[in-house]
Amino acid sequence: MATRQLGRGIVLQTLYEWDFYKRKEIPEEILERNLEEFTPQYDEKDFVLNLLKGVIKNIDKLDEIITASAPEWPIDKLPIVDRNALRIGLYELLYADREEVPPRVAINEAIELAKTYGGHNSGKFINGVMGTVYREIGEPDKNPEKSRND
């Protein structure tokens, strides 16, 4: 498994636990515990910490986007894995450096998280929501002159 893909899995597990326990724990402490337990030799700790902090910092905006893109699925009714895979994917799609994480990579990684950790239809659901948002932001892979910062 690729290093960053593994890191995204650890962030997903961290967000899952944080979300499951109603956000009562400190997410950075959960992340550190998960890294120590599951990947003690992991060498991209800055990547996972920045990803976790970015998702948490933007969680309200991300949830609004999920709600708008999948109105038939209230955010609190989504499976915890699906909503957190979407949060990670949307964060990377909308806020990450596109040189570091191209839009299609953000989409594919979110789908892989959902397929690996979610239910039978999670990958299809994530693909649909991510695809909708990708089109709404102007398909940046096809139109690189369009920027989310314009």
TrEMBL record:
Gene3D superfamilies: NusB-like. Residues 8-135 form the NusB/RsmB/TIM44 domain. It comes from the Bacteria. GO terms for molecular function: RNA binding. The keyword Transcription regulation applies. GO terms for biological process: DNA-templated transcription termination; transcription antitermination. One of its GO terms (cellular component) is cytosol. Keywords: RNA-binding, Transcription, Transcription antitermination, Transcription regulation. The keyword Kinase does not apply. Involved in transcription antitermination. Required for transcription of ribosomal RNA (rRNA) genes. Binds specifically to the boxA antiterminator sequence of the ribosomal RNA (rrn) operons. Belongs to the NusB family. HAMAP family: NusB. This is Transcription antitermination protein NusB. It comes from Candidatus Colwellbacteria bacterium CG10_big_fil_rev_8_21_14_0_10_41_28.
